[in-house]
Design a protein that fits this description.
GO molecular function, one term: translation elongation factor activity
Shape: globular
InterPro entries: EF-Tu_GTPase, Transl_elong_EF1A/Init_IF2_C, Transl_elong_EFTu/EF1A_C
Protein name: Elongation factor Tu
Order of helices and strands: EEEEEEE
CATH class of one domain: Mainly Beta
CATH topology of one domain: Elongation Factor Tu (Ef-tu), domain 3
Structural class: mainly beta
Largest sheet: 5 strands, antiparallel
Organism: Alteromonas stellipolaris
Low-confidence stretches: none
CATH architecture of one domain: Beta Barrel
Keywords: Elongation factor, GTP-binding, Nucleotide-binding, Protein biosynthesis
Strand content: 35-45%
Distance between the termini: 18 Å
């Protein structure tokens, strides 16, 4: 699983929360140009649609139905 290539600002994967996939735009922190496979990073995501969630909710990051990452 996972990605085999880095991603950059403007990356727009699907975020899977419980039963819903929603696209989100990733905003990388200041000074971070790219995220390599295996990196752990805090970043901001702007979802294209509002969904209800609680703090600490786990989610999967998906591309084409394939899980490539996870977060909290």
């Amino acid at each position: 699983g996972g990605r085999h290539t880095p991603f950059f600002k403007g990356y727009r994967p699907q975020f899977y929360f419980r039963t819903t996939d929603v696209t989100g735009a990733v905003e990388l922190p200041e000074g971070v140009e790219m995220v390599m496979p295996g990196d752990n990073l805090k970043f901001v995501v702007e979802l294209i649609a509002p969904i209800a969630m609680d703090e600490g909710l786990r989610f999967a990051i998906r591309e084409g139905g394939r899980t490539v990452g996870a977060g909290v």
